[in-house]
């Protein structure tokens, strides 16, 4: 018997590797404590000249994700808005959150680290049953471990968190970013409103 399982209304997470070898040392960033971890004081870090190479790579992949995978119209432009560096000392975590006022969010990592990013499905399951194993269809959480040059992007409403690591782990660094749209965002609906 033939069948097809359709990943209806799935949430895409774009994953690729980029070159982070020429990035500045993250220790030189000006840090402040925020919600149990540390963030750069600069909320537009990737706009600095020293980070332009990294921003260029990220924007290439953001456009791949937006236009090739999500099939957005080329009349609608996607632009990076905020970008911050994150620094987690041992035993620090990021609470569960999503990114408001953004279309696509993402992060890039610089080292291997045991503290994974955990994506959380935000849907209501009436009945919970035991499973023999987990996959994209039945999981309520999905974890991805940081590694050098790993770039992840996802729709900004997808909730995620970072687990805390034990006291013997190194500092965990990442740069997170958000985006917004410009240009003709939805000309079809605008045309209907004019009728």
Number of E-state strands: 11
**Which stretches are low in confidence, meaning pLDDT under 50 for 5 or more residues running?**
none
Give the N-to-C terminal Cα separation. Answer: 49 Å
Biggest beta-sheet profile: 7 strands, antiparallel
User: What are the secondary-structure elements, in order, as H or E?
Assistant: EEEHEEEEEEEEH
CATH class: Mainly Beta
Strand order of the largest sheet: 1-9-6-11-4-3-2
Protein architecture, described:
With 195 residues, the protein is an alpha+beta fold. It has one domain: Jelly Rolls (Sandwich). Helices cover 13% and strands 33% of the residues. It contains two helices and eleven strands, in the order βββαββββββββα. The strands form two sheets. Strands 1-9-6-11-4-3-2 form a seven-stranded antiparallel beta sheet, with helices on one face. It has a four-stranded antiparallel beta sheet with strand order 5-10-7-8, with no helix packed on it.
């Amino acid at each position: 018997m033939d069948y097809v399982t359709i990943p209806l209304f799935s949430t895409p997470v774009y994953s690729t590797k980029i070159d982070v070898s020429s990035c500045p040392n993250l220790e030189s960033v000006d840090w402040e404590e925020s919600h149990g971890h540390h963030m750069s004081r600069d909320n537009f870090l990737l706009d600095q000249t020293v980070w332009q190479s990294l921003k260029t790579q990220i924007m290439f992949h953001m456009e791949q994700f937006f236009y090739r995978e999500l099939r957005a119209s080329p009349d609608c432009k996607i632009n990076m808005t905020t970008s911050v560096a994150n620094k987690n000392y041992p035993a620090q975590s990021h609470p569960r959150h999503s990114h408001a006022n953004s279309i696509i969010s993402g992060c890039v990592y610089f080292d291997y680290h045991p503290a994974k990013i955990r994506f959380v499905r935000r849907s209501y399951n009436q009945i919970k049953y035991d499973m023999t194993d987990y996959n994209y269809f039945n999981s309520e959480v999905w974890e991805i471990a940081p590694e050098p040059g790993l770039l992840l992007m996802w729709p900004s409403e997808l909730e995620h968190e970072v687990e805390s690591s034990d006291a013997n782990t190194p500092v965990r660094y990442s740069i997170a970013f958000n985006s917004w749209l410009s240009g003709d965002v939805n000309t079809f609906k605008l045309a209907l409103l004019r009728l």
